[in-house]
Amino acid sequence: MSSTIAADTIEVMEQQDTGPRSAGRSLNAEEKRDIDREFSHYEDRGSVALEALRVVQKHRGWISDDTLYAIADYLGVSPTQLESIATCYQLIFRQPVGEEVILLCKSSSCWIMGCEKLQRHLEQQLGIRPGQTTPDGLFTLLETPCLGDCDKAPVMLVGEEMHRHLSADKLDEFIQEKKKHHADQSAD
Amino acid sequence: MPTITIDGRQYEVEEGQNLLASCLSQGLNLPYFCWHPAMGSVGACRQCAIIEYKDSDDEQGKLVMGCMTQVRDGGIYSLAAQPAQEFRGAVIEDLMTNHPHDCPVCEEGGECHLQDMTEMSGHTYRRFRGLKRTHRNQYLGPFINHEMNRCIACYRCVRFYRDYAGGDDLEALGRNNQVYFGRQCDGKLENGFSGNLVEVCPTGVFTDQTFSRHFVRKWDLQTAPSVCEHCGVGCNTAPGARMDFSSRDENLRRVVNLYNRDINGYFICDRGRFGYEYANSDLRIKNVLIARREQVIETTGRRKDKLHREIEPPAALELLASAIVDAQRGRRRLVGVGSPRTSLENNFALRQLVGPGNFFAGLGARDLELLHTLDRIQRDPRISIPTMPDIEDADAILVLDEEIGRTAPRVALAVRQAARNQQRDHARELKIPLWQDASVRQLRGENTPIFVLGSSASTSLEDIAREQRLASPAAIASFAGRLAELITAANGPTTGDEAGSGRTPLPEDLEKLLRGVADTLLSARRPLVISGCGSGEPDILAAAGKLATALADKQGSPCATYLACPEANSLGLAQFFEPGEGTLEQLLEDLRERDSVDPPVTLLVLENDLYRRLPTAAVEALFDRAAEVVLFDSLLQPCSRRADLVFPAAATPESQGTLVNSAGMLQRHYMVYEGSGYIQESWRWLVDAVNDPACREAGIDTSPALLRQWQHCHEVTAAIAAALPCFRNLTEAGPDENFRIEGMKLARQSHRVSGRTANRAHLHVAEQAPLTDPDSPFTFTMEGVQYAGASPLQANIWSPGWNSNQAIHKFQQGVGGPRRGREPIPRLQREPAPMPAWLAREKLVQEPGQMYLAPTWQLFGSGELSNYSEAIAGLTDAPCAQLSAADAGALGVAPGARLQLRLPGGEITLPASVSDHIAPGVIAVPVGLREAPDLAALLPAAAEIARIENPEPVEPGESV
After folding, report:
1. Is there a contact between B689 and B321 (Cβ–Cβ < 8 Å)?
2. At a CB cut-off of 8 Å and minimum separation 6, what does A103 contact?
């Protein structure tokens, strides 16, 4: 897969990767337990692939090659088959992403309400283009099709929070707040 | 049959078929991409749009996808209606937006389905001016090139590779406009049928890497129908050859599948496709060689090795002729050694020259016994030999110790299709047409019951097998015997010492399986038993035969039984000998006995590497006892070191002849191109020797005199048919050189072939007269019948507007039907005889502590000829001894250990490797490898482990 992330950005991410969200060759007990919980809903181990990717991504932030092999091994499917599923879904990250993944809605309602302008603003503030991660590893900007909240456009989704009726000021506020939050966390 | 109207004309079409297939089988041109006759429809590409009208009053109609719409009796359709044409044009214009403009440098160009379809849809002007998406390509191993930018995302590759062939390392990755067909990371495509991607891909994403190295356009290839020489299945191929302008020799450029519904259908395996390069090997013999007088200095060669120099053919023939004359006068004895990898014609000519009493099979006693056992089973009227469609139709399959994925790969692919028969039955119940591929595949349902028993695990069948069990061959034979007894239980008790009757107590897991397998086979309507010579155990074959006949007795009709032979003409060669006769051991014994009294022996070895047939010491002893050794072969193989005279023999694509496949089918291969130098068929060398003035002057009579009458291949064929009743229909295998269509032969070259006058312009300004062909219904030029619809022999599959191999549908009786004009393949005419009640042999492993050494055949590495192909040679494994973890633990074998094994035939030392794919008590050893050819002759055998050299324990922290 070709990388749209600059080399130095990746380096930052991979250093972070050695921290608490370390991606190893094998899955840890917690990850296995979370995957095991899904088995009862599906016919066979292989069918759990997408859930397993989601579960492990929750723990590790993204799916590295090694993580992919570990999951494939655990589910008894080939790495290529798992890759096929992983790369089909936009929200399974096969490249390192920041702590906060911003999914900016680019569908028609949000477009009418000026999401293009907001995107330019975000890009300027963060210094990144869609698909890129800030050098401090905090923010990743991604475009997304309709988030289903058209009456409150323009919107963006960050983690599990929906941000509605966006404006440039709201975006600045959001960035400051997240920066402060992560600074506090690392100080602890 | 339903009648439909297309653009005002009425057609009778097959019931239940889809519109696309129906249109194509009526000869209509309707473009398509994702549909494939063997893989059905998924409706992905939207290319085959046609208009369907409600009734004759409907003027508007609606757009439907031809491949997804079932024909309706009385239906009215239009291909030519403007909305349909516009839609198809728009679809292809869209597909082409990302397709590069690289046809001139693309190897698919000239036989590209995408080119054909674009042309057919009328999209001749490109309006798109935007950027095209680009991809990084992957390294996919030595067979296949990858060029993803050309992809139009029809999904055919994964549908073949994953769905049809069972591969798990090629998938559709990504999504939207970025869909990528590849592996998770660079690496060889692991499936043994990966080469078919070259033909399945409608454009140039997957191309033949071996062909790349000496690429020419399809229209410049010279083609004739051939038969694959790399295993006993006998797949039909269309090799293509072309003059190489640097060496000025014709050489073989590639091999592609040649459709034959009963054998290979649309697909061949990678050994067959990429094994051809042996014909271009540096080790090819092109001149006659004679041993020099000088002794080899011992440090540069083995003792008794001979050095050779080239000699003019007349001088060599004179030498051979004088040996023949001497033999006539009783001053010399001619002994012939035949070959299972060359034609009946070559074997018969040698047999005729030396006399049947002096003709030997060129096989060890065990190999020949296996073939005769197999032959006796096939003669039983209760046995029927299935074609590939029959195998695909089976509803219960039992595989007995034969890794068909490696010894008869095309059969394993057919078994894989049979695995889905329960799913297909379910689809029929739900009235889903079987060509609705995606819908049928989504149906729940177990696989067809396939039971696989082997001394090592079958990697090709493990994912589709209902039960796979590892057991020793003795236990497997015993299992099959017990099964036969269970099935015939009503017919009274059987005697206790027949082969496979249960002398070996069954391991517990097999005992448990017994009843279930018996019930499954008994309740099946089309049960199939598969076994073969691969295990090296006649007991396995005998037990398979016993089981199949028991099933046949019970069901009241013959039981389908596929028994795999190891080589292209194994079964044909065996027909020249009575059981128990003609082995190399007997030859050696014979020479030993007559050593002092008899005249000196001239040993004529025909296209056979004897070091693969007997232990090395025995081969050396054989050569030691011959006063003179004459070798006919295409490659400088190990036997040439001991030969006094070496004649260059034609490889299969350079010659005409008949081969008998494992199913007893007699198949003719035709010369595709003339071998360079003095290469010609072995039988022609023998005929030339008999016609040499030395022979003429001396006057010869008796059997060699018959050779004088042969000038054309069909005369040899006719002589075989006259001499041996089992070959009496041999002449039906194909027409002879007198074949004409309206006064013309068939053309090997296409009407577009280029460079005809330039080929030899460096030699003379005048164009050389074309070669004449004294044997076949073909000409060597473009003059003659080129249209593949005129004769099923035409191997250049081309039709106006259809430059790719997809043109084959123009020449079939209905899509997926037999080739038009094709007669049923003639089969061996053997005397039917009930199978004898074979006695079980003594068990091989008698003593505690002994291990059973089982031969394992490899897809790449065990084929005598394909091992000389560059792409395949790079993939072969080193010899090793694989054993189960339990045995390794019990014996104290550490990883990296070397095992010294004492067999009856000698001692061997092999690196050990531990695998969970091996039965307990068994050591599996890959055989047929070039480094250790005689392992095939030594195995199977009981072995004592003489010594285990475990590696020195490594201190922690010390680097290795």
Report:
1. yes
2. A142, A143, A144, A147, A156, A157, A158
CA distances from B869 to B103, B187, B239, B654, B732 (A): 29, 20, 15, 16, 33
Contact B658/B344 with Cβ under 8 angstroms? yes
In chain A, which residues have their Cβ closer than 8 Å to the Cβ of B463?
none
- Answer yes or no: do A87 and B185 touch at CB < 8 A: no
Looking at every residue in chain B, the average pLDDT score rounds to 92
Q: What tens digit of pLDDT does each residue of B252-280 get?
A: 999 999 999 999 999 999 999 999 999 99
Q: Between the CA of residue B235 and those of A4, B110, B270, B664, B788, what are the distances in Å?
A: 48, 25, 12, 13, 19
Q: d(Cα B136, Cα B796) in Å, to the nearest integer?
A: 34
Give the pLDDT confidence of A139-164 residue by residue, as tens digits.
999 999 999 999 999 999 998 899 99
Cα angle value B29/B33/B39 (rounded, 5°): 105
Interface check for A77 against chain B (CB to CB < 8 A): the answer is yes
Nearest CA to CA, how far is B170 from chain A (Å)? 6
pLDDT at residue B490 in the model: 52
Q: Mind listing the pLDDT tens digit for each residue in B783-840?
A: 999 999 999 999 999 999 999 999 999 999 988 899 999 999 999 999 999 998 877 7
What is the DSSP code (8-state) at residue B131? P
Residues of A with Cβ-Cβ distance to B136 under 8 angstroms? 2
Label residue B642 exposed, middle or buried (CB < 10 Å: 0-12, 13-18, 19+): buried
Q: What percent of chain B has pLDDT over 90?
A: 81
* Amino acid letter, B959: S
Q: Tell whether the model's pLDDT for residue A20 goes beyond 50.
A: no
Quickly count: other Cβ atoms within 10 Å of residue B26's Cβ. 15
Any idea what the Cα angle at residue B612 is, between residues B610 and B615, rounded to 5°?
85
Q: What is the pLDDT of residues B814-827, one digit of tens each?
A: 888 999 999 999 99
DSSP code string of B652-704: GGGS-EEEE-TT-BEEEE---SPPSTT-B-HHHHHHHHHTSHHHHHH---TGG
Using DSSP, state whether B226 is helix, strand or coil. Answer: strand
Q: Give the SS3 label for residue A149.
A: coil
Best probe of the A interface among B138, B149, B170, B184, by most A CBs < 10 A, is B184
| Rounded alpha-carbon distances, angstroms, from residue B923 to B596, B680, B899, B911 | 42, 43, 11, 12
Phi, psi of B41 (to 5 degrees): -110, 145
Domains of chain A from N-terminus onward: 18-88 (1.10.10), 100-187 (3.40.30.10)
Q: Which domains does chain B have, with CATH numbers?
A: 3-96 (3.10.20.740), 288-364+583-811 (3.40.50.740), 368-572 (3.40.228.10), 850-949 (2.40.40.20)
Contact A80/B169, CB-based, under 8 Å? yes
Closest-approach residue (CA) in chain A for B183: A80
CA distance B419 to B445: 11
**In the structure encoding, which two tokens stand for residue B24, read together?**
């194509």
Nearest to B171 among A1, A2, A80 (CB): A80
* Across B625-643, average pLDDT: 95
A88 contacts in B (CB within 8 Å)?
172-175
Q: How many CA atoms lie within 13 A of A26 on its CB side?
A: 2
CA distance B856 to B698: 51
User: Using the beta-carbon criterion (under 8 Å), do B184 and A68 form an inter-chain contact?
Assistant: yes
Task: Answer yes or no: do A2 and B136 touch at CB < 8 A.
Answer: yes
Chain B CB within 8 Å of residue A49 CB: no
Largest Cα span, chain A: 49
**CB-defined contacts A:B, below 8 A:** 34
How close is the nearest chain A Cα to the Cα of B159, in Å? 13
* List of residues 6+ apart from B488 with CB closer than 8 A: B494, B550, B553, B554
